[in-house]
Amino acid sequence: MSKERTRVLVVDDEEIVRESLSGWLAKDGYTLDAAPDGPTALDKLSRERWSILLVDLKMPGMNGLQVLETVKKIQPDVAVVIMTAYATVETAVEAMKMGAYDYLVKPFDPEELSLMMVKIVAQQQLVRENVLLRKVLKRDYHFRDMISKSPAMQRVFDLARSAARSQSTVLILGESGTGKELLARATHAESPRHSGPFVAVSCAALTETLLESELFGHEKGSFTGAVNRRKGKFESAHGGTLFLDEIGDISPKLQLDLLRVLEERKFCRVGGSEPVEVDVRIIAATNRDLRKASETGQFRDDLYYRLNVIPITLPPLRERLEDVPLLVEHFLEHLNLEMSHRIEEVSAGALSALMRYHWPGNVRELRNVLERGMVVAKGSLIMAEDLGLDAGAPRQAPVDVTLSLDEVEHRHIAAVLHHGGGNVTQAARTLGIDRVTLYNKIKKYGLRRVEEHNEEAK
Amino acid sequence: MNAGVHIWWLGADAPDDRLLDTVRRAIQSAFGVTVRVDRQPDRPAHAFDPRRGQHSSTEILKWLVGRSRAGARTLAITDVDLFIPVLTFVYGEAQLGGAAAVVSTARLAIPTEPDPDGVLFDSRVIKESVHELGHSFGLIHCDSRACVMARSVNLIEVDAKHSSLCADCEARYRALHQKDDHHE
Question: What ipTM score was computed for the predicted complex, to two decimals?
Answer without folding.
Answer: 0.89
